[in-house]
Each structure stands twice: as structure tokens, then as C-alpha cells.
Write the C-alpha cells for this entry.
Amino acid sequence: MVKKHVKSVVDAMGKWVEVITGVMAFIMMVSLMWQVFTRFVIKIPSIWTEEIARYSFIYMAMIGASIGVKRSTHFGMTMLTDKLQGRARIFYTKYVVNGTILICSIFILVYGLEFAIDYGLTRVSPTFLVPMIWVFLCMPITAVLMIVFSLYNIFFEDFCEEVSPEPEIPFQGGGDL
Amino acid sequence: MVTTFVLWLFISFAILIVLGIPLAYALFLSSAMAMAFASDLPMVLIMQQMQKGIDAFPILAIPVFFVAGDLMNKGQVSEYLIKMCLAVVGHLRGALAYFTIIVAMIFAGTTGSSAAESAAIGAVFIPNLIKRKYGEAFSVALVACASVIGIIIPPSTFMIIYGSFGNVSVAALFIGGILPGVLIGFSLMGITAYFAKKYNYPKEREKVASPREMLQAFRRGIWPIGVPILLIGGMIGGIMTPTEASLVTVVYTLAIIFLIYKTLTWRDLPKIMKDNALASSIPLFCLACAGVYGYLLAFYKVPDTVGEAVLSVTKDPDLIMAFILVAFLVVGTFMDGTPAIIILLPIVQKLGEIAHFNPIHLGLTVCLTIALGLLTPPYGLCTLISCAIGKTKLTDVLKPMIPMFCAMLAVVVFIAYSPNVALFLPRLLVPNLVAAR
């Protein structure tokens, strides 16, 4: 019962994060397009596009990576661990892999916040003069998402045989590096 | 102090990798542990380096090239490319295998990632090659090898990363990648010709196509070739940065898909955008984590130590080049290209400085060698993906793959030892970006 509830909340969260990632990519591409247009067509290069593109790119990359935790698509060398079978493998994926992700995420959260507050408040971005804390906050935000998704994987996800932390094979294009 | 720190860094990383921890987290955790247990550096430094790792303008091109490649794929452009190949080389023995290589080369001009390419090319060609009795092992091996060209012919994710973190012109690396990419394509064709004769592969048509047929096939199939032309043309003389050129390729791809092929509608775009943003965020996160690791190595002067160690053994540039090639081939077997480049970049550049290599030639060689790592098991992404599509075991594929791999390695070694050939195109097209030396 609890599981069903949690699953629906986490899935909804995942969906929103995916949409935000897509929107960030869209903002990045539109501002880059505007940069190309102003530079080559109307010959007055706009100065603010680079900053928007760069910061939305950082948010896209960081927040999108948390979905990788949810879907177990972060790649690693799984040649040895693939030999594990059945319960041992489920146990391993659940506790060792997601546990490691959890530890890293807590670390990113704690020191990311410290970094954002210590360094972000005093610095401003070159063009917009916005405090850099708004950019640096992407790291603690990502860490929170990663913590949620890895905890969910540990407590509620029942990894069946075929789910492993290998790259998901993208048959229809897309794909990871 | 320094020794224990570096030992922490290496040993914890090796253990985490063997345990199958995702690479990004393995890099992050081993950096964090080394800092916590063996140094008095402030921990905040990790976050600062992580932020720096993805705050570089050139790497913005990576997700954009992901989108461009996926548009080509979802727009089913390969179908028209196949028709064009059918008209030109359809009468040869083993025609379908040639199609695979030619389409892979043209596709390589739009996609910056070999994994995406082996997925795209493999989905189209592997089932058809198997159906036509080319043999499962040969089909899978061919697609895996051909898709590696995706990261050699520009655009290329590895080159973007190498260029932006190694302070080398990405445009010059891109242009340098054309020649080896084409050479590898031709050498694969040569091997195909041998196999085709030996195993008597089928032809796709009896006679050479008539000029009229050819013209018809070209009218629809020629458009995708505009992408690499536009990309390279935009970068000649440094008119456009690779990031801007990436945008232009997306616009061009959208234009040909909407106006000529009409295989996609506006409604498909949000999903393509979202999927590729998510797909590119995984290597980008890994990049951020590798940035921390690489910074710590550089902070403790590991590149200098390695440089001195090598210098005490030899001063011969040829031997140093051989060392770099072997090191990257070995690293490529168990690690993905992106983190490998970031971590080893300072060491390689130090060695390059000692041996007086041209930075662009060095970068090109490194990117080519790392690209071969996409084939070598246990962690050869292209081979793994192709095997998954062909439902074949890795061990079966190795036999036909060995001659192909050797041919590709020969091209890479040739490029590594003939800087004048490697730098011919960059010197011709972007002379201002190639250092004289």
C-alpha cells in the first residue's frame, strides 16, 4: 500500500524532472540559435545569449543526471557483477550500487550547499549580475533528487533480472555516449 | 602525504570500478575519499571543480549534436541513403555491407556519438544483413566497427571534450578527423570485399543502375550530405565556433526533414528534445565527476611525475607516442572515452610537451585511439550495443572483428606517426588554428 503511494509520487516527480530537463535543453538551443542569428544575420551579436545558454545547460546536465539514477542508466563496467544471479544480483544492485550513489549524493548535498552559500552569494554572473548562488544551487538540487531516487530504488524498486546498471540499449536512436 | 593521496585515488577507484559502480560515482567517491582521508584540502573544492567541469562553452555542442543525430534517425533518412547506395554500389558482391559502411560514414557527419550511431545503424542494418545470409558474427562486427567512424568524422563528442579541456581548437580537431574517418571507412570496405569474395555474399541488383535511376535516387538521398558540408564549411577559417555550427546543423536537419522528407511533425520535437537532453546528461555528469578527479591528479603533480618517469626511460618521440597509444588502448578497454580523456589529458599534454608533438596532432591521435576503445571488450560500447541488437554473443563476434580492428588500428598508427598527413587538412582549411611549430 505504502509502496504504491510512494511509487506514484516518485514517478510523478521523475516526470516533472524529465520535463524540466527538456525545457532547459530547449532554452539552451533557442538562445544559441538567437546568438547565431544575431551574429550572422543582423550582425549585432547579442551579449546575453551565451550566459543563458550556459546556465540552462548546467541545469540540464545536472538535473537530467538524476533521472539516470532512477532508470539505472549511469554506465559502469559490469562484466564481473553480471555474473551474479538471482537474489544476489538484486541485493547487489539495490544495496551496493544504489547505496554508493546515495552516499555520493549526500556528500554532494552537504558540500554543494556549503559551496553555493560560501562562494555563490559574493559572486555575480558577468552579464546579468545575478548572484551565482542560483547557478551553484543546481548541485544540491540534483543531490536531493538523486537521494530520493536512490532511496526509492533501495526500498521499493524490485530489480528484476534484466535491470542492471548497464547503459540502456537505445534501439530507436538517442543513446548515451 | 602525496604518495598516500595518490594511492587512495588510484586504489579506491580501481576497487569501485571492479565492483561495477557507475563510472561517474566511482570517480566522485574516490576523489572524495582521497581528500577526506589523505589531505587537508577543503572539501568545498570538490564542488567547485565539479561546477567548473561542466561550465565550458564548447561542450554545449554535445547535446545539440545528440539532437541533430537523433533527428536524422527518427526522420528515417537512412532509407533514402540506402536507395542512393543501391543505385551506386548495388551491383557489387556484398553490396549491403558496403551500404552499411557508406551510410555509417554519412551518418557520422551528423551524430557526435558512436553509441547513438551503432544503435541507429544497427537497428536498420543488422536484421537485414542477417536475413541476407551475411552471418551474424560478420554483421554485428561490421556494424560495430563502422559505427566507430561516427566519433571520428566530425562532429565528435570526444574531440569537443578534448578540445575544450585541453585548450586545443575543436574546429581543427574536427577537420583533422575527416581524413582518418574516411581512411577507416575505405579499409573496412577493403575487408568487406575480401569477405564478400570468400563467403560469396549476395548482390543487391544485377546490373549497374541507369543514369536516370541514379539521378532519381540522388535527388532525394543527397540532402543529408549537406550536414557535414555545412558543418565543416562553417568552421573553415574559424567563421563559426563548433557550438554555433552544431546549431546550424540542427536547423538544416529540421529543414530537410520538414520540407523534403516530411517524416516528422512539430509534435515529435518535444520528445526528441527531452530524450536527448536526458541521454546527454549522463556523460555530462560523468564529465563533471571526471573533472574533479583530473584536477586532483594535476594538483598533486601526477602529470609531472609521470613525465619525469617517462623522460628517465626515453626521450625518443616515437617511443613516447607508442606509450600514449598503448596507454589509451588499455584504458579504453575498461573505461568510457569521456572520463578517460579528462583524467589522462594533463598527463598526455605533459608528454606531448616533452616530445614536442603538435597539440592538434596529439589530440587527434588520442581521440582516435580512444575511439578504438569503443570496440574492445569488456567495456566496448559499440560492440555491446551491436551484440544486443543482433542477439549475438560477444565471443562469437571476435573472430570477424579482429581483422577489422587491426585495419582500424593500422590507420590510427599511421596517423599517429605521420603528423604531416594528419595535419594536412587542418593546415589547409583552418591555418590560423594550427600552431606552426
User: Anything to note?
Assistant: Chain B touches chain A through 77 residues (CB under 8 Å). The radius of gyration of chain B is 22 Å. The mean pLDDT of chain B is 89.
